[in-house]
Specification:
- The chain is α+β, with helices and mostly antiparallel strands and 385 residues long.
- The protein folds into two domains: 5-201 and 379-383, Ribosomal Protein S5, domain 2 (2-Layer Sandwich); 209-375, GHMP kinase, C-terminal domain (Alpha-Beta Plaits), CATH 3.30.70.
- It has eleven helices and twelve strands.
- Strand 3 (64-69) and strand 4 form a beta hairpin.
- The relative contact order is 0.17.
- The structure holds 2-deoxy-2-fluoro-alpha-D-galactopyranose.
- Residues 31, 35-36, 38-39, 129, 171-172, 174-175, 222, 335-336 line the site of 2-deoxy-2-fluoro-alpha-D-galactopyranose.
């Protein structure tokens, strides 16, 4: 519904019969570069976006959690008892918020019972991590209301644990980190092995640029299929190469890998190794030059995901090609792949031409019309009322 704070507080009162203790918001994210590198202990460079999920929350006197959503006003809240809740014990969308409370307790932080009403402007299934936005808004709320004092870094691991174990999606730490650590005008450079992060300036407006998200409307889910298969290939590649994680291989190790690995595993490994190098290059480019110099890295990242990692699809390739044809500086699919969104970095003056080129290419190919919108690096999770 994308409610104002007043609307959401009123909707909460109508739903649960009490006023909320507060409202917490957490953003979705766009990953600028560094795809599938997070669970390989590698590097990522995402940023928080302006679209966010907001949760209105109130502490209960017992240990029940009740969650409802503005998207299903007629559905009864999903209820769980924190004293008996087990891994995998909640199905559907409520597994994300309730999973966060479960994960918080697994990490040794005792939570109060809560009533939660969720609202969001992050499109679901578009590759912008509506799931992390939901997890992180709830994590921020329970952290404050329970006076738990958990650091942002640990909150990210708690969101990831909820997603891995309650939802069953074997995802990495990138999305929660972006949602919690993002800042206006910056991307988050994260070393997924050490957990260290650093903000990198990403001043798109100052450089006369726009970053367009092209939502292909081909939806994807990371709890099924290709994502888990790619993760297994990476683990196999690391094992056969005798390293703890693919992070431990560099581009010069690829010649040896070509002799050790089967052809498909080699290509999966090559994507991760070269993508890690591209993230480090992108940080250098942003620090010493500016976003206008990112074009070739974005294009190379997409080619690697299309040809080596094989996680693109016809709609994503069409979006990238049509954007580049119309003068985009760079373009690539973003997120886990198999659908979702592409990003195109464009000069502000070219934005309209890029949009119409992509729309025209989708129409000619007989694809559903994409949804195209600009994003700016925004703030991470926070209490908003
Ligand atoms: C999804 C996952 F949730 C992330 O952890 C990451 O692996 C990404 O796909 C691919 O880079 O968003």
């Amino acid at each position: 519904m994308n409610a104002t704070p007043l609307d959401l507080a009123a909707a909460f009162t109508e739903r649960f019969g009490t006023e909320p203790d507060g409202l917490w918001s957490a953003p979705g994210r766009v990953n600028l570069i560094g795809e599938h590198t997070d669970y390989n202990d590698g590097f990522v460079l995402p940023f928080a976006i302006n679209q966010s999920t907001t949760v209105a929350a109130a502490v209960r006197q017992d240990r029940l959690v009740r969650v409802a959503s503005t998207f299903a006003p007629d559905e009864a809240p999903v209820t769980a008892d924190l004293d008996t809740l087990e891994e995998g014990g909640v199905q559907g969308w409520a597994a994300y918020p309730i999973g966060v409370l479960w994960a918080m307790e697994q990490a040794g932080h005792r939570c109060p019972g809560l009533d939660l009403l969720v609202d969001s402007s992050v499109p679901v299934g578009a590759g912008l991590s509506s799931s992390a936005a939901l997890e992180c808004s709830v994590a921020a709320a329970v952290n404050d209301l329970g006076e738990l004092g958990v650091s942002l870094r640990e909150l990210a691991t708690i969101g990831q644990l909820a997603e891995n174990r309650m939802v069953g999606a074997p995802t990495g730490i990138m999305d929660q980190s972006a949602s919690l650590l993002g800042e206006v005008g910056h991307a988050v450079f994260l070393d997924c092995r050490s957990g260290d992060s650093r903000l990198v300036p990403l001043d798109l407006e100052g450089a006369g640029l726009e970053l367009l998200v092209i939502d292909t409307r081909v939806s994807h889910a990371h709890s099924t299929g290709g994502y888990a298969a790619r993760r297994r290939s990476c683990e196999l590649g690391a094992e056969l190469m005798g390293v703890p994680a693919l992070r431990d291989l560099s581009v010069k190790d690829l010649a040896e890998a070509a002799g050790v690995l089967d052809e498909e595993t080699f290509r999966r490994v090559r994507h991760i190794v070269t993508e890690n190098a591209r993230v480090e290059d992108a940080v250098r480019v942003l620090t010493s030059g500016g976003p206008a110099d990112l074009g070739s890295l974005l294009v190379a990242s997409h080619a690697s995901m299309r040809d080596d990692f094989e996680i693109s699809c016809a709609e994503l390739d069409t979006a990238v090609d049509a954007a580049l044809d119309a003068g985009a500086i760079g373009a690539r699919m973003t997120g886990g792949g198999f659908g979702g969104a592409a990003i195109a970095l464009v000069r502000a003056d070219d934005a309209a031409a890029v949009r119409s080129s992509v729309e025209g290419a989708f129409a000619s190919a007989g694809f559903r019309a994409p949804v195209i919108f600009g994003v700016l690096p925004g703030a991470g999770a926070a209490r908003t009322a």
